[in-house]
Request: fold
Amino acid sequence: MEIVIRQDPADVARTVAGIIGDLVTKREGRAGRPPVLGLATGSSPVATYQELIRRHRAGDLSFAGVTVFMLDEYVGLRKTHRQSYATFIREHFADHVDISDNAVHSPDGETKDIEAEVAAYERMIREAGGIDLQLLGVGTNGHIGFNEPGSSLSSRTRMKTLTARTRTDNARFFPSLDEVPRYCLTQGIGTIMESRHAVLTATGERKADAVSGLVEGPITAMCPGSVLQLHRHATIVIDEAAAGRLANREYYDEVLAHKPAWQSF
Ligand code: F6R
Reply:
């Protein structure tokens, strides 16, 4: 894993936007196709989306031809609900850049047939050639996507029950805790692991334990993000506060210091 520690959240956003921007500009999706992005919601990627929108408005970045697959969606919220992830990605990103509406896919949390829906979602990702870059946040309990502690490390897209901790963490987006959905559809850990590049971003002291567990802890279903230690190319971009409980800082700084210039961030 590449561990990239930046001074503050704004630096983190610029770094992550740089990684996504490079891929999109080089149009290096599989077989020369425009890239397929896996995108996350929640607070963590918002500053990155703002930076990507800024670069697009400045004329530096076009997303034409790019396909997007969302990581997850709540079950039982209407697609048009303010807090559905389908709405979130439009409001915070897709509506402000040149990605066509029908190129943004998310699992349908209103479906009556969950099994058919999750199978279709996996099929769509496969038929698009797989995900070139999967953007991730991490829950305070170590979840990636909504793969909560205890999730199978080889799971596929499916329905999951949100833990009390995740519902409490996300209650800030809803009028009350009672209104936070209890279930979601999420890409599985096996699905996430098939992405060609996984880029996880976390900022703030409240993520320090999760970051320490996923970077330096044992690989365990109790900290689902730790499976990224087995990913073929994972980049963890965090700020000083989120890096606060890493014990082996000097290794990460040293590896980056000797990174060839052509691999710059
Ligand atoms: C969001 C997602 C979640 C969040 C995580 C962190 O699509 O899959 O894993 O990335 O819950 O949320 P924030 O960024 O709000 O702290």
About this structure: The helical segments are 9-26, 46-57, 85-92, 114-127, 164-170, 189-193, 208-216, 249-257. The mean pLDDT is 95.
